[in-house]
Design goal:
Layout (H helix, E strand, L loop, with lengths): L4 H10 L14 E3 L4 E4 L4 E12 L2 E12 L5 E6 L6 E6 L5 E7 L1 E5 L4 E14 L2 E14 L4 E5 L12 E4 L31
Antiparallel strand pairs: 1-3, 2-3, 3-4, 4-5, 4-6, 5-8, 6-7, 7-9, 8-9, 9-10, 10-11, 10-12
Family: Belongs to the LptA family.
Protein name: Lipopolysaccharide export system protein LptA
Subcellular location: Periplasm
């Protein structure tokens, strides 16, 4: 079974749409309920309490976030959830109506490599509208939005029994079975010219 894992990951990548490219040019907006600090010298921002980061279609929610800007202008975000309130992530895809959603105890986001690392009880889903088309879960998930590849790690913080990884690939939507479709044609109507026969 383990030998099939690379094939399954390739299947996930093959049916993927790329992350919405317009997000890269949008401003990154940070909000929180509690205290925050901005260190201009070290290019570091810390926020606590229902933190929300948005950038175009990207939405990240966490209890605590530590954001650092590199010297060349890239962002590295480290997000932590709280008990019963994990970190959540959502981003639209270039194909309209499709998105990626993820949840984990912790999250690391790097705009230089365009990677997201979900750590602890991690689950990611590819959505088409409100329908799940693919789902992966494990102790750690690394998602590369450039190549659309998921890398999974097993471990005791996996949401699955015995710490195993799990991949679910839904079958593609099939057209309705013609045999079950209603018959076409005009509905039957009573005759206006025939009279019922009489019994002899």
């Amino acid at each position: 079974m383990l030998s099939r894992l690379p094939l399954l990951l390739l299947a996930l990548a093959a049916c993927a749409a790329h992350a919405e490219k317009g997000d890269r040019t949008k401003p990154m907006i940070f909000t929180s309920d509690q205290r925050g600090s901005v260190d201009g010298v070290n290019q570091r921002t810390e926020l606590q309490g229902n933190v929300v980061i948005t950038q175009g279609s990207l939405v990240l929610r966490a209890e605590k976030v530590d954001v650092r800007e590199t010297r060349d202008g890239y962002i590295q975000a480290y997000a932590n959830g709280a008990t019963g309130k994990p970190v959540t992530f959502r981003q639209g895809q270039d194909k309209p109506g499709e998105s990626i959603e993820g949840v984990a105890d912790q999250l690391e986001y790097d705009t230089r490599t365009e990677t997201i690392r979900f750590i602890g009880s991690a689950t990611m889903r590819r959505m088409r509208g409100s329908t799940v088309t693919n789902e992966v879960s494990g102790a750690v998930i690394l998602y590369d939005s450039r190549s659309e590849v998921f890398t999974l790690e097993a471990g005791n913080t996996s949401p699955n029994p015995s710490g195993r990884t799990r991949i679910v690939i839904m079958p593609p939507a099939q057209p309705d079975d013609p045999a079950s479709a209603p018959a076409s044609g005009l509905p039957l109507k009573p005759s206006t010219t025939l009279t019922p026969g009489k019994a002899s």
